[in-house]
Amino acid sequence: MKILMVGTGGVGEAAAVIAKQRDPNGDWLKLMVLSDFNLERAQAVSERLADARFPAEKVNARNKDEVKALIEKYQADLLFNACDPSFNETLFDVAYECGVRYSDMALSLSIPHPTDPYHKTNVKMGDYQFAKHEDWEKRGLLALVGIGMDPGAVNVFARFAQKHYFDEIHTIDILDCNGGDHGYPFATNFNPEINLREVSANGSYWENGHWVETKPMEIKSRYNFPKIGEKDMYLLHHEEIESLARNISGVRRIRFFMTFGQSYLTHMQCLENVGMLSTSPVSFNGQEIVPIQFLKELLPDPASLGPRTVGKTNIGCIFTGIKDGKEKTIYIYNVCDHQECYKEVGSQAISYTTGVPAMIGAMMVVTGQWKTPGVFNVEEFDPDPYMEALNQWGLPWVVCEAPETVTVWR
Amino acid sequence: MKILMVGTGGVGEAAAVIAKQRDPNGDWLKLMVLSDFNLERAQAVSERLADARFPAEKVNARNKDEVKALIEKYQADLLFNACDPSFNETLFDVAYECGVRYSDMALSLSIPHPTDPYHKTNVKMGDYQFAKHEDWEKRGLLALVGIGMDPGAVNVFARFAQKHYFDEIHTIDILDCNGGDHGYPFATNFNPEINLREVSANGSYWENGHWVETKPMEIKSRYNFPKIGEKDMYLLHHEEIESLARNISGVRRIRFFMTFGQSYLTHMQCLENVGMLSTSPVSFNGQEIVPIQFLKELLPDPASLGPRTVGKTNIGCIFTGIKDGKEKTIYIYNVCDHQECYKEVGSQAISYTTGVPAMIGAMMVVTGQWKTPGVFNVEEFDPDPYMEALNQWGLPWVVCEAPETVTVWR
């Protein structure tokens, strides 16, 4: 089986390192082409892997012909999209046109709302892909979208809970806690414009068949995360809510919470107050300068956070519902340690927890364990082999019965 | 009597407006030349005054010949320095060379420490001028330095307290409270680089004959200011401590406190954390950009704060000591309203409380009420006519017996 990976950043590197470790003899992975707009970057990862199955190539992921040429050159069976989600539609279409399978790992809030990116949330951003479900089905091809951690692994947690623990799931709270500390007073894990959208965009959750929109950061809570401790968290919109609402029958409410420290929020607020988060150019010394882009220049390079970030992430879901006529609550989560991830794949847990589940999803496809043709979310397939692979591949999960539930206040 | 004012900013304008109001018939003020590097600015003030005694001139205050030419053209008797203190030494020397009297209103922290401006305080910045005392004395000329509010009026308060209320003054706490609100989450009253020095420089106070240096903002207190209410304040170095220590015999401790709101301090801290207060250039889009200068571009223009600033300032001194063998404490202060100042002189209380006392000091000189030749601080002359003028000229003062005293904590 041959994979063309497009985009070899921290997430792509984590996926490639794990793929090599877990299939040293090429039982299912014959080839994984590491392609990137920055050839040096792809070559560096290829050299670190020191395995002929991982050649490096340069590619402009917005140029369909260049991507097609690589698919043909290597006779790839799967286009593994590890780019920023703004590339998803192009790469999704290229895979279809070339007749190969496809996967991506869209991150919520990475795709801004088309008309009001800093205040409105981009609900139903997956529509473009799902509208083409029948074309893919007819052609006998599988496209798996949103297969990172959240969306991705947490969606599988939901299907797993439904299959083994509940007759009916009534509520799902997705909890994304980054308990990491990089030691800087303020730094962002990725592009500050995305961080800004996280805190300035309206939140939303799904209840009784419709969306409920909230003001930015309006709904706050505090939760005592296993292996981490108490953290403040806030309700945000996150795209996995959209597919879980479609795919988990009988669910009444789905919410997403992400932790933010008070210092992070205070810095964001002060920077917004003075105009440093503005995306409109300001004229300075006869040059047009976009404040948030200048800020990005001042902040530590996100890639430099890996070696210095300590602590853990805890990402999972709390489910409530009915089993055998009785109410029950369970919490399925994974805890990941930033330093251990860095030692293993050269990047912190943020990349690791996205790249590893995506690699497992890709393996489900290339090994044929998931094969129904069409455009699907991961929760539409049998969760068992995937959950087993998470335990083997470095993201062991825990099922906690009767956990503390989430209390919100405004 | 003829005055050459050099520098016609907000402070100079306030001084000129008050001078015209208080001497409409030219009893003592025959002429006040308004000179500025920006001729349009000087002309605008001249037109607003609509009085032939206030002509506008262009001058480069760093060019001795240009200043001399104006002194000769108008046969000025006094050089009234209303520039940034960085011009003081040049203008002080020009006045001496031309044989005219001189005044300035140096603001502490406006002159950075020569080697470490953002951490060290510039103790004894007046030495250059006082070293020339005997030259001025021999020539029969008076130079009056630091004649704004603080330094300036507060120094006169000290001499007034010594003359009328105490046999011995033991301690002086100078309290500078700006209770104004401009309605912005964050803005600075003047150049943010000076604001930065205020909060990042070490503090110092004078005790038992020597200086005690503190860490930046190390000593905090909270005081219930008459007409304003409770405000947090911090111990800073301020130059009037230097002259009061010389001129108020028997004083054991002198401290200076300035109020800062928590929001102001939080914004300064966050901006410093991300590097926005840095004075070292950063390369961005192939251009060298100094972060704090770009920040200055984003912040509201200090001149725009005048019309929208509401609230009051309270600036004064708390004295403790002995009278007739009994311990006593008094508080002499002035309360000034931002909006009333703006209506009267077109700028807020920060300019008003600097320009008006300076104008009164100049009047003491030109009317001959203060005439001993040499280089002096205002507390070295009889305070009574000056204190009387403050009441007449719009800065009425209050003597409060047995006020709350200052309690500090670290």
List the main descriptive attributes of the protein structure presented here:
homodimer; Dihydrodipicolinate Reductase, domain 2; alpha/beta; ten-stranded mixed β-sheet; seven-stranded parallel β-sheet; 2 domains; Rossmann fold; 14 helices; 410 residues; globular
Task: Please outline what is shown here.
With 410 residues, chain A is of the alpha/beta class.
Give an overview in words.
Two copies of one chain form a homodimer. By secondary structure, chain A is of the alpha/beta class. The first copy, chain A, folds into two domains: 2-104, NAD(P)-binding Rossmann-like Domain (Rossmann fold); 153-350 and 397-409, Dihydrodipicolinate Reductase, domain 2 (2-Layer Sandwich). The first copy, chain A, is built from 14 helices and 19 strands. Chain A has helices at 10-22, 39-49, 64-74, 88-98, 127-130, 133-139, 153-164, 192-200, 240-247, 262-273, 291-298, 338-345, 349-366, 384-392; strands spanning 2-6, 31-36, 56-58, 78-81, 101-103, 142-144, 168-178, 203-207, 210-214, 220-225, 229-236, 253-259, 282-284, 287-289, 312-323, 326-337, 374-376, 397-401, 408-409. In chain A, the strands form three sheets. In chain A, strands 7, 8, 9, 10, 11, 12, 15, 16, 18 and 19 form a ten-stranded mixed sheet that branches. A seven-stranded parallel sheet of chain A has the order 3-2-1-4-5-6-17, sandwiched between helices. In chain A, helix 1 crosses helix 13 (349-366), helix 3 packs across helix 4 (88-98) and helix 13 (349-366) packs across helix 14 (384-392). Chain A is globular and about 55 Å long. The N and C termini of chain A lie far apart (51 Å). The interface between A and B is medium-sized, with 22 and 22 residues.
